[in-house]
Design a protein that fits this description.
The complex is a heterodimer of chains A (583) and B (430). Chain A is of the alpha+beta class and 583 residues long. Chain A has 14 helices and 26 strands. Chain A has four domains: 70 residues, Thrombin, subunit H (Beta Barrel); 270 residues, 3-Layer(aba) Sandwich (Rossmann fold), CATH 3.40.50.300; 73 residues, OB fold (Dihydrolipoamide Acetyltransferase, E2P) (Beta Barrel), CATH 2.40.50; 135 residues, Bovine Mitochondrial F1-atpase, Atp Synthase Beta Chain, Chain D, domain 3 (Bovine Mitochondrial F1-ATPase, ATP Synthase Beta Chain, Chain D, domain3). Helix content of chain A is 33%, strand content 25%. In chain A, strands 8, 18, 19, 20, 21, 22, 23, 24, 25 and 26 form a ten-stranded mixed beta sheet that branches. In chain A, strands 1-2-5-4-3-6 form a six-stranded antiparallel barrel. In chain A, helix 5 crosses helix 6. With 430 residues, chain B is of the alpha/beta class. Chain B has three domains: 70 residues, Beta Barrel (Thrombin, subunit H), CATH 2.40.10.170; 257 residues, Rossmann fold; 85 residues, no CATH class. In chain B, the strands form five sheets. In chain B, strands 9, 13, 14, 15, 16, 19, 20, 21, 22 and 23 form a ten-stranded mixed beta sheet that branches. Chain B starts with a strand and ends with a helix. The chains are: A alpha+beta (583), B alpha/beta (430). Chains A and B meet through strand 1, helix 1, helix 4 and helix 6 of A and strand 5, strand 17, helix 6 and helix 7 of B. The complex binds adenosine-5'-triphosphate and magnesium ion.
C-alpha cells in the first residue's frame, strides 16, 4: 500500500489543492490535519504532482502546508450484520452513537465504526473444508432480526477458491475470521462477518441481470394501478416544493411489499428524517408484525450537513442495498432528493472550474445519474435465487419546471415517472401525481386494457373541464357533462387517497383489483340524467358513499353493504334510463 | 503573533488578494487604508496568495493598505448584556451603548445531529386567524413570508414577534431600509419587547459584505440562548438581500452562476441557515421567521424557489393579506389536533367554502348566471375576507373558531357545510 503524503497548497470552500509525493489514485481517501482534527477527504482530480481533494467537512482553519495523508483506499463502507435499524450519515457514521459522544452538534473529524465491534453474532457455517466458492457465495448465516443474514465470500475475490478452514457454529464478532479460502496459487483470503466495499463500484457478484417483471405493490392506488413500479425497477418523483414528494416516499417506505427499505435522506430537511426515526420503531410492519425499523436502514445527510458527504450518501445507500440484494432479498431504495445530490456535483464541478453544461451542472451529469439508477435491477444469484433493488428518487426541479437537466437526465433512464403537479397539490388532490403526465413501463396490478380505458376517460374529462371553463356548464352537452363527472369521480375516489386513514391509506393489490372492476363498470354504465344538477347530485352522493367504502375494511360486512349500495345506485339509474327511452 | 502585510496584489469588487503565509482558511484580518479600515475574511488560499472579502467593501482600499491577520475566524460576543442592544451586521454597536467584548463565540458552527432532534410539539400563538386557525405556526419551525416588495411583511413579522410567547427575540436585518429599521426599533421599544431583543441590523446603506454576516451572527447568538433553555424567535428580513449579497461575491470571485446569476450553492447556503431552527430536548428552541421578497412577484425566482424547498411551509402575503391558497404550515398537523376538537374541521370547511367562493367570483366575472348557492358563497366570501383574512383582526384561536361557526351559521344551512353530525351538534350556533 502506498500511503503517500502531501501538503495543502490551496483551499477554496470544501476543496483542497494538495501537492503530493508518491502515488495517489483517483477517488482515494485522504486525511488532512487541521490542528487536532483529522478531516476526511476524497481525491477527485489529479494533475501532475497536484491533486484536488473534496473535504467531507467544514474547512475552516486549514492552512497552506498542512499535512495530508493518503490512505490508498477508496471511499468504502462496512457491510455485515448490524446494518439494519441503524441511522447513518453519508459516510456511514452512526448518528445516535455520534450524539452519545459529541452531544447536540456534529463534530467534524469524529468518525465511528459503522458496525458495533463487540456484538456477538451466532454464526452457522454452510460450507465445509474443500468446498469451491466464488465471490458472493454463502459461507454461513447469522440471524439479523427477522432475516437470515448471509455471510458471503468477499465480493472482490477473483475466480474461485477452496475453503481451507471454517469455524464451528458459535458466537463471533464482525471482525472475527470465520473461514479461510485458498486458491490454486495458494493465496489465502479471510472471510469475516464483515467486509468492506468501495461505494462507487457496483457489486456484481451475481449470475445475471433479469428484466423486472413483477409489480412492487406500494398500496398506493394511483401507483399500483396506473403507474406501477416493478421489483428491480426504477422510478422518479419530480415535483415543485410542497407537492408531496416526501410524504409519498414516507408512505411507500411503510407499505411497500419488499424485504428491506433503505431511506436515503439526501440534502433535505433534518426534521423529516426525525419523523421516520421516531415513528418507525413504534409502527408495526404489516408483513412481519415486527417493528418497521427492523427492516429499515436510514442514511441521512441532510441539507446543512457537509455537501461532499451528501454526494457520498447516495452511493453509501445503494451499496448497502446491493449487499442485501446479494442475499436474495428484495430491497427498496428511496432517495430524497436526487437533485440535492446533483447540486453537490455541481458545486464540486464549479470549484474545479470545469466547463459547465446547462444550468451550470457538469457535462457528465447524465452519465452519473444513469449509472446510479443502473445499480438498481433484478438479478439471479449464483445459487439461482433472485434478489432485487428498486430505486425511487425524488427530483426537485428549479421553479417546479420539469424541463431542467436533472429531471430530463433522470427521465431518460427510469422505468416510471410519477410527476407531481402544483395544480393537484394546491387543490389538495393527494397524492398529487398528475394522471395525464405520468407514465410507467411496468406491469399494473390490474389488466392493461382497463387501465387504458380509465386513462382515456380521465383525459376526456380533463378536456371537457377545460372547455367548460370557457363556455360554462350551459354550453356543455349533458353527455359531456356526465363524462366529466365520471372522470372527476374516478379521480376523487380512486386516484386520491387519504394517507392518514388507516384503511384508505393503504390498499392491497387484491382490493385494488376488486374496486377497480367496480370503477370500470361505473365508467361504462349508460347513465342518464334530466338535468346537470341532477347529475351533479348523483355523483356527489356516489362519491360520498364510495369514500365510505374506501374506509371500510374489506373483511367487514360494511364493505359488502356499501359496495351493494354503490352498485344499486348505478342499476337504478340505468333502469330509469331504459324506461325513459322506451317511453 | 499577528502578522502585518503591506502589499495588495489585486482588488476586485469587495475582494482583495495579498501574498501572505501562515494564514488559516476563514481567518479574519484588519485592512487599514488611508481612508478606510475594515475587517476582512479569508475566502480562498492558493499557494502564497490569500483572497479576502472586505466587510466594508473594496472601495477606498489602496494597494499599500496594511493587512493585519487576527489569527481567528469571525466571532460574536455572547452574554445577557446583548439583550436590549442593537448592532451592525459586523456586530459593532449601532446604538450608543458600549462594545461588548466578553465571551466570544464562533459563528456558522456545526449543524445539530439529526438523531438529537425531536418532533415539534408546541403551537406558537399569534392572534392572527390566518395563521392560528389555518396554518398554525409551531415552535422550532422555519417559515418565510413570501411577498412582493411593498407588502407589509415587516409589520407582520414585528406583530408576530410581539404576540408570540417567546423568551428572546433576535432580529437580523439585511438591506433593511433605514425607516424599517427604526420601525422595528420603535415598535419593539414601545411595547417593552426591546428588553428581551437583540438586533443585528445591516441597512441598505451599509457595506454589502456585512449583510452576509447577519444570519450567521443572529443564529449563533440565538443558538446560545436556546441552549440555555430560552425559546428564541429569530426574524430574518430580507433573505433575498442576503442571497443577492452572495450573488455579488460569487460574481466577483468569477464563480460560474447556475441560475439567473446566483451561485450553484444557493440552496446549501440558505439551508445551512434555516436548518438552525431546532427544538433542543431538555433545553430551549429556535423558531425562524423570515421575509423573502419575490422579485417580479415570481415565486419561481431562484430565491423564493430554493427557500420553498428548504423551509417548512410559507406564508404568501398578497394585497396586505395572508393568502389561504399557497400558504402552508407543514408542521400544523403536529399541533392542531390537540387544540380544540373542531379546529381541523373548521380549518378544512372554511377553506373549501372559500375556494368555492373564489370560483363563483370567477364565474360571475365571466358573466355566468348566479344561482342560489352562488349567492350564499358570495355572502360568505365577503364575511370571510373581512373578518378572518384582514390582518387587523387580532383574536385568540378559540375566538376565531367560534367566529368561524358564527359566519357559517349566518351564511349556510348546517347540512350544506358537510361537517360531520357530532361536531354540528356540539358547535353549530343554535
Ligand atoms: N398524501 C398527502 N396527504 C395529505 N397531505 C399531504 C400529502 N402529501 C403532501 N401533503 C401536504 O403537503 C405538505 C408538503 O408535502 P411534502 O413535504 O411531501 O412535499 P415535498 O414535495 O417533499 O416538498 P419539498 O420539495 O419542499 O421537500 C405536507 O406537509 C402535507 O401537509
Ligand atoms: Mg420533500
Amino acid at each position: 500500500m502506498s500511503n503517500s503524503t502531501g501538503r495543502v497548497k490551496g483551499v477554496n470552500g470544501n476543496m483542497l489543492t494538495v501537492e503530493f509525493e508518491g502515488a495517489v489514485s483517483q477517488n482515494e481517501v485522504a486525511y488532512v490535519s487541521e490542528g487536532e482534527n483529522r478531516l476526511m477527504c476524497e481525491v477527485i482530480r489529479l494533475r501532475g504532482r497536484r491533486a484536488d481533494l473534496q473535504v467531507f467537512e467544514d474547512t475552516t482553519g486549514i492552512q497552506i502546508d498542512d499535512e495530508v495523508e493518503f490512505t490508498g483506499e477508496l471511499l468504502s463502507v462496512e457491510l455485515g450484520p448490524g446494518l439494519l435499524t441503524q441511522v447513518f450519515d453519508g459516510l456511514q457514521n452512526p448518528l445516535p452513537q455520534l450524539a452519545e459522544q459529541c452531544g447536540f452538534f456534529l463534530q467534524r473529524g469524529t468518525y465511528l465504526d459503522a458496525l458495533p465491534r463487540d456484538t456477538k453474532w451466532k454464526f452457522t457455517p454452510k460450507v465445509k473444508q474443500g468446498d469451491e466458492l466464488t465471490a458472493g457465495e454463502t459461507v454461513g448465516i447469522v440471524p439479523e432480526g427477522i432475516f437470515e443474514h448471509a455471510i458471503m465470500v468477499p465480493f472482490n475475490l477473483p475466480g474461485q477458491a477452496k475453503i481451507k478452514s471454517v469455524v464451528e457454529e458459535g458466537d463471533y464478532t464482525v471482525s472475527d475470521t470465520v473461514a479461510v479460502l485458498e486458491n490454486d496459487d495458494g493465496a489465502e483470503t479471510e472471510v469475516k462477518l464483515m467486509q468492506r466495499w468501495p461505494v462507487k463500484v457496483p457489486i456484481r457478484a451475481y449470475d445475471e441481470r433479469l428484466r423486472p417483471a413483477e409489480p412492487l405493490v406500494t398500496r398506493i392506488r394511483i401507483v399500483d394501478t396506473f403507474f406501477p413500479v416493478a421489483r428491480g425497477g426504477t422510478y422518479c418523483i419530480p415535483g415543485p416544493f410542497g407537492a408531496g414528494k416526501t410524504v409519498l416516499q414516507q408512505i411507500t417506505s411503510r407499505y411497500a411489499d419488499v424485504d428491506i427499505v433503505i431511506v436515503a435522506a439526501c440534502g433535505e430537511r433534518a426534521g423529516e428524517v426525525v419523523e421516520t426515526l421516531r415513528e418507525f420503531p413504534e409502527l408495526t410492519d404489516p408483513r412481519t408484525g415486527k417493528s418497521l425499523m427492523d427492516r429499515t436502514v436510514i442514511i441521512c445527510n441532510t441539507s446543512s450537513m457537509p455537501v461532499a458527504a451528501r454526494e457520498a450518501s447516495v452511493y453509501t445507500a445503494v451499496t448497502v442495498a446491493e449487499y442485501y440484494r446479494q442475499m436474495g432479498l428484495n430491497v427498496l431504495l428511496l432517495a430524497d432528493s436526487t437533485s440535492r445530490w446533483a447540486q453537490a456535483l455541481r458545486e464540486v464541478s464549479g470549484r474545479l472550474e470545469e466547463i459547465p453544461g446547462e444550468e451550470a451542472f457538469p457535462a457528465y451529469l447524465e452519465s452519473v445519474i444513469a449509472s446510479f439508477y443502473e445499480r438498481g435491477g433484478l438479478v439471479s444469484l449464483k445459487d439461482g435465487r433472485k434478489g432485487s433493488i428498486t430505486i425511487g428518487g425524488t427530483v426537485s426541479p428549479a421553479g417546479g419546471n420539469f424541463d431542467e437537466p436533472v429531471t430530463q437526465a433522470t427521465l431518460k433512464v427510469v422505468g416510471a415517472f410519477h410527476g407531481l403537479s402544483r395544480a393537484r397539490s394546491d387543490a389538495r388532490r393527494y397524492p398529487a401525481i398528475d394522471p395525464l403526465d405520468s407514465w410507467s413501463k411496468y406491469v399494473s396490478v390490474v389488466d392493461d386494457e382497463s387501465v387504458k380505458a380509465a386513462h382515456a376517460l380521465l383525459r376526456r374529462g380533463s378536456e371537457i373541464g377545460q372547455m367548460m371553463k370557457v363556455v360554462g356548464e350551459e354550453g356543455t352537452s349533458i353527455e359531456d357533462f356526465v363524462t366529466f363527472l365520471k372522470a372527476e369521480y374516478l379521480d376523487a375516489v380512486y386516484l386520491q387517497q387519504d394517507a392518514f386513514d388507516a384503511v384508505d391509506g393503504a390498499t392491497a393489490a387484491e382490493r385494488q383489483q376488486h374496486v377497480f372492476a367496480v370503477m370500470l363498470a361505473i365508467m361504462n354504465a349508460g347513465l342518464k340524467f334530466k338535468s346537470r344538477d341532477e347529475a351533479r347530485r348523483f355523483f356527489h352522493e356516489l362519491t360520498q358513499v364510495t369514500r365510505d367504502w374506501n374506509r371500510a375494511p374489506m373483511d367487514e360486512d360494511k364493505f359488502k353493504e356499501l359496495e351493494d349500495k354503490i352498485k344499486g345506485r348505478i342499476t337504478e339509474n340505468e333502469n330509469n334510463a331504459k324506461s325513459l327511452s322506451s317511453d | 503573533m499577528q502578522k502585518v502585510y503591506h502589499q495588495i496584489d489585486h482588488i476586485a469588487g469587495n475582494v482583495i488578494t495579498v501574498r501572505a503565509d501562515g494564514v488559516k482558511y476563514r481567518d479574519l484580518a484588519q485592512v487599514t487604508s488611508r481612508h478606510t479600515t475594515s475587517l476582512a475574511q479569508v475566502i480562498r488560499l492558493q499557494d502564497d496568495s490569500v483572497s479576502l472579502q472586505v466587510f466594508a467593501g473594496g472601495r477606498g482600499v489602496s494597494t499599500d493598505a496594511r493587512v493585519r491577520f487576527l489569527g481567528r475566524s469571525m466571532q460574536v460576543p455572547y452574554s445577557e448584556a446583548l439583550l436590549g442592544r442593537i448592532f451592525t451586521g459586523g456586530a459593532v454597536p449601532r446604538d450608543k451603548g458600549p462594545q461588548i467584548t466578553e465571551n466570544l463565540i464562533d459563528i456558522g458552527g456545526p449543524s445539530v445531529n439529526p438523531a438529537k432532534r425531536i418532533i415539534p410539539r408546541n403551537m406558537v400563538r399569534t392572534g392572527i386567524p390566518m395563521i392560528d386557525v389555518f396554518n398554525t405556526l409551531v415552535e422550532s419551525q422555519k417559515l418565510p413570508v413570501f411577498a412582493r416588495a411593498g407588502e407589509p411583511y415587516n409589520p407582520l413579522l414585528a406583530r408576530i414577534a410581539l404576540q408570540a410567547e417567546v423568551d428572546v427575540i433576535v432580529l437580523g436585518g439585511m438591506g433593511l431600509k433605514h425607516d424599517d429599521y427604526l420601525y422595528f426599533r420603535d415598535t419593539l421599544e414601545s411595547s417593552g419587547a426591546l428588553s428581551h431583543t437583540v438586533m443585528f441590523v445591516h441597512t441598505a446603506a451599509d457595506p454589502v459584505v456585512e449583510c452576509l454576516l447577519v444570519p450567521d451572527i443572529s443564529l449563533a447568538v440565538a443558538e446560545k440562548f436556546a441552549l440555555e433553555g430560552k425559546r428564541v424567535l429569530v426574524l430574518l428580513t430580507d433573505m433575498t438581500n442576503f442571497a443577492d449579497a452572495m450573488k455579488e461575491i460569487a460574481i466577483t470571485m468569477e464563480q460560474i452562476p447556475s441560475n439567473r446569476g446566483y451561485p450553484g450553492d444557493l440552496y446549501s447556503q440558505l439551508a445551512a441557515r434555516y436548518e438552525k431552527a431546532v427544538d433542543f430536548e431538555g433545553a430551549g428552541s429556535i423558531t425562524i421567521l423570515a421575509a423573502t421578497t419575490m422579485p417580479g412577484d415570481d415565486v419561481t425566482h431562484p430565491v423564493p424557489d430554493n427557500t420553498g424547498y428548504i423551509t417548512e411551509g410559507q406564508f404568501y402575503l398578497r394585497n396586505g393579506r395572508i393568502e389561504p391558497f399557497g400558504s402552508l404550515s407543514r408542521l400544523k398537523q403536529q399541533v392542531n389536533g390537540k387544540t380544540r376538537d373542531d379546529h381541523r374541521t373548521i380549518m378544512n370547511t372554511l377553506i373549501q367554502l372559500y375556494s368555492g367562493y373564489r370560483e363563483t367570483v370567477e364565474k360571475q366575472s365571466m358573466g355566468f348566471r348566479m344561482g342560489e348557492w352562488d349567492n350564499k358563497l358570495l355572502k360568505y366570501g365577503k364575511r370571510f375576507e373581512a373578518e378572518m383574512m384582514d390582518l387587523s383582526v387580532n383574536i385568540p384561536l378559540e375566538q376565531a373558531l367560534d367566529l368561524g361557526w358564527e359566519i357559517l351559521a349566518d351564511c349556510f344551512d348546517a347540512i350544506e357545510t358537510g361537517i360531520q353530525s357530532d361536531l354540528l351538534e356540539q358547535f353549530w350556533p343554535k
